[in-house]
Design brief:
Helices cover 56% and strands 20% of the residues.
Length: 175
């Protein structure tokens, strides 16, 4: 991936997804970049265990704001109003996190699971809007972002919503 890339992954299995996510996050951390992980507690736990196995010092990375983990539910609560993502609030919340992660000029890569939570709840229009807001922020901030959806919930949605999701990404991958 390059700065400005926004990749959508639709995955079949949790272990394969966690391996892929760990590779994406770990590659950046090993290269001196920062990583923002907005993920469920179980996914954070899975990624952190895999990152530790590679020899990364997570406590040091956290202290230096090179590894920032956030709850998707709590993050959504900061910018959702009446079930709809508010652009100005979204920009303020995520930009603040990016400032921390960048420190003194670091590149940043991120993972966001907020969209998967909205999608799972059947809030397809709000998910599409949030992906659009991510894409605009990614273009402006030149960060790399990976979004992932479990195949089982992705395939249940209307085809038009799935098309809009993939259209709001620079790349879509399966696996």
């Amino acid at each position: 991936m390059r700065d400005g890339d926004h990749v959508c992954q639709v995955y079949e299995s949790e272990p394969a997804f966690l391996d892929s996510l760990t590779g994406f996050i770990g590659h950046g951390l090993w290269n001196g970049e920062a990583a923002v992980l907005i993920a469920t507690a179980s996914h954070v736990t899975g990624v952190e265990a895999r990152l530790r196995e590679t020899g990364l010092d997570l406590a040091h990375l956290r202290a230096d704001d090179r590894l920032i983990t956030l709850s998707p539910e709590l993050t959504l609560a900061q910018f959702m109003v009446d079930g709809w993502p508010q652009a100005d609030r979204f920009d303020a919340v995520i930009s603040q996190v990016l400032v921390r992660a960048r420190g003194k000029g670091r590149r940043v890569r991120g993972f966001g699971e907020m969209v998967a939570l909205l999608w799972e709840r059947g809030e397809y229009a709000a998910t599409v809007r949030l992906e659009y807001l991510w894409q605009k922020l990614i273009e402006r901030e030149q960060v790399q972002v990976l979004c992932s959806y479990p195949r089982k919930s992705f395939d249940r949605a209307p085809a038009s919503s799935r098309s809009e999701i993939t259209a709001n990404h620079t790349h879509a991958i399966a696996g």
